[in-house]
Protein: Probable S-adenosylmethionine-dependent methyltransferase
Amino acid sequence: MKGQEWYQATEVAEEYDEKRFSRGGRLIDRREKEAVLDAVGPVEDQRVLEIACGTGRFTVMLAERGADITGLDISGPMLQEGREKAQRAGVEDTIEFMRGDAGRLPFPDDHFDTVFAMRFFHLADTPTKFLTEMARVSKDTVFFDTFNRFSTRSLYNWLLPMGSRLYGDSEVRRLVDEAGLDLVNDEHDFLVPYGFYRKVPDWIAGPVRSVDTALGATPAGKPLSSVSYWQTTV
Structure:
């Protein structure tokens, strides 16, 4: 797993949200949360599992909407940040944070209504194993995102200390088939890679995002998009 030691560092966990989702990064946070909510639908009284929950951005959001949610991550410091976030939001009683391996989920088959993972598959050395496990423990929806090979992300990837696994459209569709899942919907976004938005202030990020979104709606949008969201069912 790429970056396993890096993500488990306490200083990384403490600074994670601030470095990625402040300034122009707020636009990324907003879009990712929108994508999750669109995919999972109403979650009140639903049993949900988040893989690689990190600092609990989505875990807490869904708990606030009534989900009975479990957040699993390999990083103890990230989970601690999530617990503190849940306490501040007053939803700590409806979230279970667990440290564990996404390749060997400690749950029976069909245990959750929905299973999802964000910011995870770009780190996966063996994506088929992880997606198959997600499908095994879900009885309905499996949702995840990927970074795309034929996009501006491929250029930005050279600057990253540990790189990312990038996916082509056909590769993801094959993974979905191999996991026994049916693809319901796929969306593609962010012609400008995440790294740009995180480095610029709001007054620059906003207009760039407007242009990015407009270009993304054209026929060139899908092949050039750096991020894809995949909604599937078991």
About this structure: Residues 4-233 form a domain with the Rossmann fold fold (CATH 3.40.50.150). The longest strand covers residues 138-147.
